[in-house]
Amino acid sequence: MTDCIFCKIINRELPASIIHEDDHVIAFMDIQPVNPGHILVVPKIHKELIAELDTDLTSRMFNIAAKINLAIRKSPIQSEGINYFLADGEAAGQEVFHTHLHIFPRFRHDGFGLKFHESYTQLPKREELDEICGNIKLSME
Ligand code: AMP
Ligand code: ZN
Asked: What are the HIT domain coordinates in residue numbering (predicted)?
């Protein structure tokens, strides 16, 4: 895709600090890291949403992320924990519309966090959970 930043990185039209590359997946340093060691795992094929990838490719992305996770923990890069984050769609915070998995080191008081709505602390009734569960489950076949 011609206007896509990540396709340009894949095609070497933009610079990137590449930590992994194979025929299907590339991983490089995020230009605006939450913390040092923030990496993006990106399929080489241009697809906006993760569900558009075939399951093999999704597995490959998570396998690379797992290797990176271990590598961060073994490396001199500091981390107390590690987050995986994937914004799937604009409403979910996606800004680059070429699907990608973030993996980044975390520290207890690093200031990163998700903001919850006010009613978040109220637990839904079991019937409500069961109904939503049933609806999604039906669509899994
Ligand atoms: P998202 O909000 O999940 O779409 O995240 C997009 C991520 O891409 C952000 O964390 C950006 O900092 C990162 N990003 C944007 N442009 C570049 C670039 N040229 N090289 C590396 N990372 C980038
Ligand atoms: Zn792209």
From this structure: 5-113
